[in-house]
Structure formats: structure tokens, C-alpha cells
Design brief:
The complex is a heterodimer of chains A (536) and B (306). Chain A is α+β, with helices and mostly antiparallel strands and 536 residues long. Chain A folds into 2 domains: 255 residues, Periplasmic binding protein-like II (D-Maltodextrin-Binding Protein, domain 2), CATH 3.40.190; 236 residues, Dipeptide-binding Protein, Domain 3 (Dipeptide-binding Protein, domain 3, Roll). Helix content of chain A is 32%, strand content 23%. Chain A is built from 17 helices and 19 strands. In chain A, helix 15 packs across helix 16. Chain B contains 14 helices and no strands. Chain B has a domain of 163 residues: Orthogonal Bundle (MetI-like fold), CATH 1.10.3720.10. Classes of the chains: A alpha+beta (536), B mainly alpha (306).
Chain lengths: 536, 306
């Protein structure tokens, strides 16, 4: 635990130190080759793609603010910002002299307004679109270096939106997009970040060239190429053959890479895995079935307690430590409640111990709940982009459940097939879900844990809906975090979901890489290439 | 003859139309592309707007009608992933697959025919046994494994060749050998058995009795006659190479249509899936049509048959 804290502290300090450093002004004549399994949708404009697409352009763009691993932000294009007391006006004071690539001029307040308007546009598919449309009244350009966003109602989340954290809001060049149009600008993005796009073959690679004397960070490597290599064995072979410098390594291949003598980097918070128990629907839903042993009408206390026993039994039946050590080879940690990342997550309560592995107690609880001979259920083995462990974790959980007498059918399914059924609340099955990094659990829960949510990963309960709504409306961060903790407590006490493991992502580097500042939550998509240093 | 050709062409057009219906329906069975394109937080309004934009809000027969009418005019839709015409995306990747396919084809012929002829000439010897064993191995070992082993030997250990990607001629060697190995095994076995048939015939015995040099007996008299089934089989295998290079392209991160279609399926990029399948079907059908016409040209019995 101490070493974990030390690592976290070192990470934070190095983050801040490196962030502000400008030691290197001219890149070395070297090329960095980073590999990825897929370049995904590759959309480079924020209104045309999802956050995953934008990950690859993190070095091409600059952002108003940069998220730190803990609370708060550091200045980006906005040198400073001011928020009115009632949290309805956010004024950003822009850094002067920051230039867009290829002579497209200086970054001004017009570009910030244009970017926000773009995301809020009617045809925008950005995940930020709904929130910004709901909350933003208008964006006012005060002068070329000052822009004010006026909200319809007080909101504390706004700063969480306009930064580089996922989903990021990159500032795009108004003049360029208006001149060449969305499609062309999406194909060849112009930003103001440390790397400009030099060449691109959609689906195959993106080649960047460093911008000398960049205001934020001049990259060490003059060129950087992100190349899509779908096969993990080929990626490892390329590293070993000296044809790649940076590769994401699947957990099961980590020993092989380390044995070959390559340095590996790990970060925390790539994924938080938990078991969803068919979303525990409200009794008013068509899908609600009182025969599902772990579901119950919350208005019937006896029934709710009985179902809770079943959920507790299903929780105690799982040996998380063994899962962590075998499937994830120890690259991760255990945690207490879904949505709450281990560590300094707002609202996280250290008292939420990870539930013990106790199959005897699980069997006893099942018998007490009226299922001495177990019951049948289905585990969906979910194939979901960026979550390669999910089906294996699902299989492991199914095997643990079988040990306490449950009869588990397996159903392989990909996320695109599951998604519409999840939206329509048609699923009685269980599945293992992997959440991406989210600093504020309440933000994630407001999106995926309310009965009004489309995308659903929690449990439906009117009490929960109210708690989440009230917490979101609370402007005082201390109070809000305490309210967030209470929501976590509700999840914890009622075993609404089954927390499994938090998983870090692992990257291996060639000997040409000296260091790399990884950011929390970064998964297998390489980001912030400018912070990879060259080993002289 | 003209009537025969016309009949075959009409059959080919009907087959392509039928393929278009099948691929259109099957692609939609895989799910809704909106579930991949839109972020998970997307609202109902965003769903509806995108569905309308892509024409997915219309009934399936109407969608097919629009697709068909556009396809007839050469417009196979716009890639949902790349925001460019699907045909342009596919044709952009086709040269890489063709280049690899042609090279793999040549590699396989260069290996299979001499080995097949040699094995037939030395039937029953240990070398024949080795050749047959290697051929069986070549047909039974998956491409995937062959590719990875070749990468390990030539890229990682010897550091002679690149492990993946497309660039200079050196980039072609490992994927071409991998892809060609399966075909080489098949052609080698066929060459051997065809040669065995021919080598046992009277005219070969006569040629040998007349004292004709063995190499001339083998290559001029025997192989020429044994080559027909080999060439027919090779032509079919060549199209198979083009359409079946998915695994090789994935292992070597080769920017061809095999890899494109795999990613298109997981991205639910219907226009690209449809374009690739229709293009591949058209190639198959064109290959068969050419063979039919050539057969008819060579064998009058075929064209005069009812």
C-alpha cells in the first residue's frame, strides 16, 4: 500500500514537473514508432467521432485545460480562468502567440467558440454534445484572447468537460475547418499541439512531425508514427526486431516481453471491471421478472432482503485475488465499489473493503434465500473494444459460481449486439463490464446508473436516482464528495454490482525510449507522444 | 458460340445480383452500425439524426432499393468509418492485395511445380516421402502459425526482413511465402499425381526407349500434358488467395482488402463490407466465366450441348 502511494505521489510530482519543463527546444532527428491494435474510427474532429477516435490526436491538438491525476487542472491554452460565484460564467484567458500548424494563424477566442459550437451542432455525435447543449446558454468572444461561456444554470462539471481528459475537447482551427470543410479537416487535422500530421493512411498509420519550440512541450523525437498492427504476437516481434519503440502488451504476454529484457511501463486506471447483474430493473419494467433470484421489487422489504442475500452469495463466491494474480498477473488492484477507482477518487471510502472469498458462506446464504440447490443463469462473455480481459473474467466468474452450485450458461456476444438490448433493458443475463477512467464517480453514475440512463451499468432504484440527482446539483465540492460516498455506500451495502478488479495497462518500450509520462486512465491507445523522451 | 457466351453472361449478372441481396441482408444481421459509430452516451435524438443521415431509418427493402439503384450507377455508398466513397476505399487497398497475391502465386508455382515433378520422377524414394510430408504439413498448418514462425526466424532472430507492413520488396517476402505455402502444397500434390499418370503412359516409355534426354521427357513430353489440371487448379487457387488473405494480412499488418473487411465487419461499415464482397464475387464469377468460355472454345461439345 505504501509503495502504491509512493508511486502515485511520484507520478503526480513528475507529472507537474515535466508538464512545466521546456528544457528541450529542438527535437532529435529520430523517429518513434508506436504500435496500436487498431486506429478505431480515426475521426479527428470532436463532433464527428467518439472519445476513442480522439485519443490518437492528443499530440496534434492543444486543450484549454489539462487534467491532473488527482483533482484540479493545469493551464493549457487558457493561461488562467475565472468562474463566477454562482458558477454560471466561465471566463478563459488565452495564451498569446500559440500558432496553428502550417500557417493557419494564431489560436484565438474565436477558435474556442467555434469548437464548442461545433460540438453542440445538431449533427454532432460527440459524447459531450448532450451535456453542452443542455447547459450552455451562449459562448461570447470578449476579445481575441478572452472567451466567456455563459451557462443556463449553475454547474460544476463544466471544467471537467473542456480539458484533455477523456472525452477530450481539442481546440480546432475555425479558419481551416470553414475553408476545407468537415471531411477534409477530419482527414487531415490542423491543431496547435506539439506534433503536426505529416502523413496519414486511414486504417494503417498516422505519421507526425514535431513542432520545434512548442509552447507546451517540444518532443524529443522529430517524427512519431502510430501504426495499426492488430496481432499482438506481431507487435512483440516488431519490438524485438527493433522495428517498433512502443507497444501495448496484453497481460498474458507481459512475462514473455519482460523475459526478453524489455522495459515495461504500467499505469493505473485503464479499466475498472465489475459484474452487472442484468441491471436490476425497476419492477415497472417489462423485463422485470421476480423469478430472477437476484432481482426484487424494492418496495417489498422481505423480497429485497432475500434478493440481496443472493447477490451477496454471488459476490462472496468469487476469489478476486486469484483472478488478479492469474488472469491479470497481478497488474492491477482490488477495489470496493463499482465506479469508485481505488485511491483518491472523490467519495471513495477506504472502509469499503473488498469482499472476501467465502464460498461456504455463499452456499449458506443461497440456502437461506431459498436456493439450496442453486439456480440457472447466463453469463454473457462480452467482447468489447479495449477490454480484452472481459470474456476471460466472465468465464472465471462463471466457474466460481458453478463451485457454489449455480448452473451457468455462457453466451459470447460483442458489445454492439449487447448495446441495443442494454438500452432497451431486455437483459436478464449477467456480464462483466469494463469502465474507462473517470475521475468523478458521480459523473459516470449520472450517465450510466440512473433509471433514465440509456447506457446502463449499475442498478435501477428510485432512491439511487434521487441521490445522484441531488449530488449533481450540489455546488460545494466537499458536500458533493460526501454525497457521492453515500451513493457508494448504498451500492456497497446492497451488493448492487459485483466489483472485480482494477486493471492497469502495460506498455513495453525499446532501448531508445528513456522515459514516458503515462497518464492515468490511458488504455491501449497511445497518447501524449510528446512526453516520450529519447535515450541519448 | 455467341449465344453460349450471352447465356453465361446473363447467368453471371443474375449471380452478382443475388450476391448483392445476400450480402446486404447478411451485413444487417450483424447489427446496427449506429451501435458502433455513436458514443455510448449518445441520446435518442442523436441516434435518430444519424439513422436518418445514413438512411438507416427506412425499411430494409427501401434501403436495398436505394443501394441497388446507386450500385448500378457505380455508387456503392460512403464508408461509415472513413467518410469516403466505399469503392474508393476498397480500390485503394486492392493493389496491396493483388501485389501480394500475385507474388504468393508465383512463389507457390516456383516451389510446387519443380518439387511435384521431382517427387513424381523419384516416386517411392525418401525425397518423395519428404516432399509429400512437407506438402501435407503445408496444407494442414494454419497460415497464422506459419506467419508468426517466419517472423520469429527472419525478423526477430536473423533480423533480415521486416516483421510487418508494406514498403519495399523485402516487405513482401514473408507474407508472400506464408500465403503461398498453402497453395504450393496443393499444387505440388496435384502436379505429382498428374505427372505419375502421364509418366506411366506409352508415349513416355517410347520417348525414353528412343533415348530422349530425361529432362526433355519430363518437361516437354510429360509435364506439358500433366499441366492442364494443375493450371485449372492454380487459377482457382489464385482467386482463393485474393479472397482468403485475411489471416495473412492480419498477421503482417498488410494494408489489403482482407484486413479492411475484417475491420469493416467489426465496425459495421456496411458499404465497405458490401463493396468488398461484391468485388470478390465479381472476381470469382469473372474467373469462372472466363474458364467456361475457354472450355467451350477448346471443347465444341460443351458449347453445342443443350
Amino acid at each position: 500500500m505504501i509503495s502504491k502511494k509512493c508511486v502515485a505521489l511520484t507520478l503526480v510530482l513528475s507529472f507537474l514537473v515535466v508538464w512545466q519543463s521546456h528544457a528541450q527546444t529542438k527535437p532529435f532527428e529520430q523517429e518513434l514508432v508506436a504500435l496500436t491494435a487498431s486506429l478505431h474510427g480515426e475521426n479527428a474532429l470532436p463532433h464527428m467521432g467518439s472519445y476513442i477516435d480522439l485519443n490518437f490526436w492528443s499530440s496534434t491538438y492543444d486543450y484549454l485545460l489539462y487534467a491532473t491525476p488527482t483533482e484540479g487542472f493545469t493551464p493549457g491554452l487558457a493561461e488562467r480562468w475565472r468562474v463566477t460565484d454562482n458558477q454560471t460564467r466561465y471566463t478563459f484567458y488565452l495564451r498569446k502567440g500559440v500558432q496553428f500548424h502550417e500557417g493557419w494563424g494564431e489560436v484565438t477566442a474565436e477558435d474556442v467558440k467555434f469548437t464548442l459550437d461545433l460540438i453542440m451542432r445538431k449533427d454532432s455525435i460527440s459524447s459531450q454534445a448532450r451535456f453542452l447543449r443542455e447547459i450552455v446558454d451562449r459562448v461570447v468572444v470578449d476579445n481575441p484572447y478572452q472567451v466567456t461561456v455563459i451557462l443556463k444554470r449553475p454547474d460544476w462539471q463544466f471544467l471537467d468537460i473542456v480539458n484533455n481528459d477523456s472525452p477530450p475537447v481539442p481546440i480546432v482551427c475555425k479558419k481551416y475547418v470553414e475553408k476545407v470543410g468537415d471531411k477534409e479537416a477530419n482527414l487531415k487535422p490542423i491543431g496547435s499541439g506539439p506534433y503536426r500530421v505529416a502523413k496519414r493512411m486511414p486504417g494503417e498509420f498516422i505519421r507526425f512531425e514535431a513542432v520545434p519550440n512548442h509552447w507546451r512541450r517540444t518532443p524529443d523525437f522529430k517524427w512519431a508514427t502510430i501504426r495499426a498492427v492488430p496481432e499482438a504476437s506481431t507487435r512483440i516481434a516488431m519490438l524485438r526486431a527493433g522495428q517498433a519503440d512502443l507497444i501495448p502488451v496484453p497481460t498474458d504476454k507481459v512475462p514473455e516481453v519482460e523475459k526478453a529484457g524489455y522495459r515495461t511501463f504500467s499505469n493505473s486506471g485503464a479499466r475498472l471491471y465489475w459484474v452487472i447483474l442484468g441491471s436490476l430493473p425497476l419492477p415497472t419494467r417489462d423485463v422485470f421478472d421476480p423469478k430472477v433470484p437476484w432481482w426484487a421489487d424494492y418496495r417489498n422489504t422481505n423480497e429485497w432482503e432475500r434478493a440481496k442475500k443472493v447477490r451477496k452469495a454471488m459476490t462472496l463466491a468469487i476469489n478476486r485475488k486469484e483472478i488478479l494474480d492469474t488472469i491479470l498477473l497481478g497488474r492491477g488492484s482490488l477495489y470496493g465499489v463499482s465506479h469508485f477507482w481505488p485511491g483518491n477518487t472523490p467519495g471513495n471510502d477506504p472502509k469499503w473493503e473488498t469482499n472476501p472469498y467465502d464460498p461456504k458462506e455463499a452456499k449458506r446464504l443461497l440456502a437461506e434465500a431459498g436456493y439450496p440447490n442453486g439456480f440457472e443463469l447466463t453469463m454473457i462473455l462480452l467482447k468489447h473494444d479495449g477490454r480484452p480481459e472481459a470474456p476471460h473474467l466472465g468465464e472465471a466468474v462463471a466457474m466460481y459460481w458453478e463451485k457454489i452450485g449455480l448452473r451457468v450458461k455462457r453466451l459470447p456476444m460483442d458489445f454492439a449486439t449487447l448495446r441495443p438490448q442494454m438500452y432497451a433493458r431486455k437483459l436478464k443475463e449477467c456480464w462483466v463490464f469494463g469502465q474507462q477512467w473517470e475521475k468523478e464517480p458521480i459523473v459516470a453514475m449520472s450517465i450510466d446508473s440512473m433509471s433514465t440512463s440509456q447506457y446502463f451499468t449499475g442498478a435501477e432504484h428510485p432512491g439511487l436516482d434521487k441521490m445522484i440527482t441531488d449530488t449533481l446539483a450540489e455546488m460545494d465540492s466537499k458536500k458533493r464528495h460526501e454525497m457521492t460516498r453515500q451513493i457508494g455506500q448504498f451500492f456497497y451495502e446492497n451488493y448492487l454490482t459485483i466489483p472485480l478488479v482494477e486493471k492497469g495497462s502495460v506498455w513495453a518500450t525499446s532501448s531508445r525510449v528513456a522515459d514516458w509520462m503515462m497518464i492515468p486512465g490511458m488504455n491501449s491507445d497511445v497518447q501524449l507522444l510528446e512526453y516520450i523522451t529519447y535515450k541519448r | 458460340m455467341q449465344r453460349y457466351i450471352l447465356g453465361r453472361v446473363v447467368q453471371a449478372v443474375i449471380t452478382i445480383w443475388f450476391v448483392s441481396v445476400i450480402v446486404f441482408a447478411l451485413a444487417r444481421l450483424t447489427g446496427n452500425p449506429l451501435d458502433v459509430i455513436l458514443p455510448v452516451e449518445a441520446t435518442k435524438e442523436q441516434y435518430e439524426a444519424m439513422a436518418a443521415k445514413l438512411g438507416l431509418d427506412k425499411p430494409l427493402p427501401v434501403q436495398y432499393g436505394i443501394f441497388f439503384m446507386n450500385a448500378v450507377q457505380g455508387d456503392l455508398g460512403e464508408s461509415l468509418r472513413f467518410h469516403r466513397p466505399a469503392l474508393e476505399v476498397v480500390l485503394g487497398r486492392l493493389p496491396a492485395t493483388l501485389e501480394l497475391g500475385v507474388l504468393a502465386f508465383l512463389v507457390s508455382l516456383a516451389i510446387a511445380i519443380p518439387v511435384g515433378v521431382y517427387a513424381a520422377r523419384h516416386r517411392g524414394t525418401s525425397l518423395d516421402g519428404v516432399a509429400r510430408g512437407v506438402a501435407i504439413l503445408g496444407q494442414s498448418v494454419p497460415h497464422f502459425w506459419t506467419g508468426i514462425i517466419l517472423i520469429l526466424i527472419f525478423a526477430v532472430w536473423l533480423r533480415l526482413l521486416p516483421a510487418s507492413g508494406k514498403g519495399g520488396i523485402q516487405h513482401f517476402i514473408l507474407p508472400a511465402v506464408t500465403l503461398g505455402s498453402v497453395m504450393a502444397a496443393g499444387i505440388m500434390r496435384l502436379t505429382r499425381s498428374a505427372m505419375l499418370d502421364v509418366l506411366g503412359s506409352e508415349y513416355i516409355k517410347l520417348a525414353r526407349a528412343k533415348g530422349v534426354r530425361e529432362s526433355i521427357v519430363l518437361w516437354k513430353h510429360a509435364f506439358k500434358n500433366a499441366a492442364l489440371p494443375v493450371l485449372t487448379f492454380s487459377a482457382v487457387m489464385f482467386v482463393r488467395i485474393l479472397t482468403g488473405s485475411i489471416v495473412t494480412e492480419t498477421v503482417f499488418a498488410w494494408p489489403g482488402i482482407g484486413r479492411l473487411v475484417v475491420e469493416a465487419v467489426s465496425y459495421r461499415d456496411f458499404p465497405v463490407i458490401q463493396t468488398v464482397v461484391m468485388l470478390m464475387s465479381a472476381m470469382y464469377i469473372a474467373g469462372n466465366l472466363t474458364t467456361d468460355i475457354l472450355y467451350a472454345y477448346v471443347n465444341p461439345k460443351i458449347r453445342y450441348r443443350k
